[in-house]
Amino acid sequence: MDPRKPIVGVMPLWDEEKDSLWMLPGYLDGIAEAGAIPIILPFATGEAELKQLMSMCDGLLFTGGQDVSPSLYREEPLSGLVHCCNKRDTMEVAALRIAVEADKPILGICRGIQLINACLGGTLYQDIPSQHPSDTNHHGTMPYDRPVHEVAVLPNTPLYELLQKKRIGVNSYHHQAIKDLATSLRTMAVSDDGIIEAVYMPGRRFLWAVQWHPEFSYKVDEPSRKIFRSFVEAMEEQ
Ligand code: MN
How far is the CA of 95 from the centre of ligand 1 (A)? Predict the structure, then answer.
């Protein structure tokens, strides 16, 4: 048996105050526990550099973080409510294009689902409380490994196939969300107030994204572990 484990390129988090890259251990540990080796990528933006980096990675994890720049979906930012990191956006858009082109397994989490949707032609709610107010609590507080709202898992989707559950509880820590879904994506889970919480791209080895945070919940939540495992399995199959 091939002892080689797949390598997952993980998008770095950005601390604006400290002007530094950082990482939450759950992203790395969740991936490692699922059987792959995570590596934190730099903010490289040169096309050739990125292609070389992408060629070292069997899959990519798009992590949470700053708001996706509204310029990616042709809108002006709502003043005071949107906080972006341009160098993350630039690098992630380029990395996503290369990875989609090469059909590498991709998992998006929180900002990741938003970045993927915007990059593929969809749009976002820039701020849920002001643009889509509801009784659903999308902005949970500590501890982040506990569910704060439920989502309906849609039948005939790969997420339903994986979990065999019509409803699951999820954690939630976001003030933005998908508004118009990119035409190449399909919805896999929706919250009770109609927010799209999980998507996939049909016809791909694995392009999934979730609005919740399996990196916070994988230790206590089986669906979170199954999502990481499913992502890693897609890389093992190549
Ligand atoms: Mn939510």
Answer: 26
Provide the token pair at 147. Answer: 């569910």
If we measure between CA atoms, which residue out of 170, 165, 162 comes closest to residue 153? 165
Angle at 150 between CA 93 and CA 231, to 5 degrees: 40
**Burial per residue of 67-90, b for 16 or more beta-carbon CB atoms within 10 angstroms, e otherwise:** bbbbebbeeeeeeeebebbeebbe
Within a domain: 158 = yes
Residue 215: active-site member? yes
Catalytic residue among 92, 110, 138, 197: 110
Q: Is there a domain that residue 13 lies in? A: yes
Is-catalytic flag, 213?
A: yes
Domain of 214, in residue numbers? 7-236
pLDDT digits (tens, 9 = 90+) for 175-227: 999 999 999 999 999 999 999 999 999 999 999 999 999 999 999 999 999 99
Give a yes or no: residue 2 inside a domain: no
The pTM (predicted TM-score) of the whole model is 0.97
